[in-house]
Amino acid sequence: MGLLDGVKEKRAELLALDAARRERDANPVERWEYKVIRVKDDWQKGYAGSRSMQLMFGKLGSLGWELVALEKERAVFKRRVVSLGADERAELAGITVDDE
After folding, report:
1. Percent of the chain with pLDDT over 70
2. Is 100 among the domain residues?
């Protein structure tokens, strides 16, 4: 096998991986949505464990939101999206992400 054959094989492998990624992205098994809430005022006042934040976080939890990160100024929640419409699938198929 010559050098050119190896390059052709590698290119074919990369194209197949890209096609598989596009198919997976267009038809995801799981999909998540995210919500970012500003908590700066409560945090600065020393209310990180306050009753108001507990109530707010509890309400979001009862709606299916899971707290995944808490920083000084924001809380990040996520929840699973159950269904994906045809328009959303088409939109996802058109998204490209640079890996660089």
Report:
1. 72
2. no
